[in-house]
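Per-record layout

source: Oxalicibacterium solurbis
name: Divalent-cation tolerance protein CutA
length: 117
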Amino acid sequence: MNDKDGFCALLVMTTVPDEASAQKLAHALVERRLAACVHLLPSIRAVYRWQDAIEEATEVAVHIKSVQARYAELEIAIRELHPYDVPEIVAVPIVAGSRDYLEWLKKQVAGGTDIQE
């Protein structure tokens, strides 16, 4: 959600190969205040092309709630912690949501301080 102060909430998505990788990533992002909340959705199937072959794998989907102002740091952290050579990192703006939840999200990622875009 964008507001008059330039705040923009994001849903950032990635996938990892297993629950242990997902747990490690989620905890690190929340501890670093790059994410307010991370949802882990286990046992999804992915079909994709990699190095000229069609591959299929079981993965864990990771949904990260963050803010635009921290996106660059968040992407660096995901790349640092991610086990894949080319991790999926896709961010979409949250265009609407509960005001109370979005205020909570903003405070968690800001570490209790105001975020300026």
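summary: The chain has a mean pLDDT of 91. Residues 9-110 form a domain with the Alpha-Beta Plaits fold (CATH 3.30.70.120).
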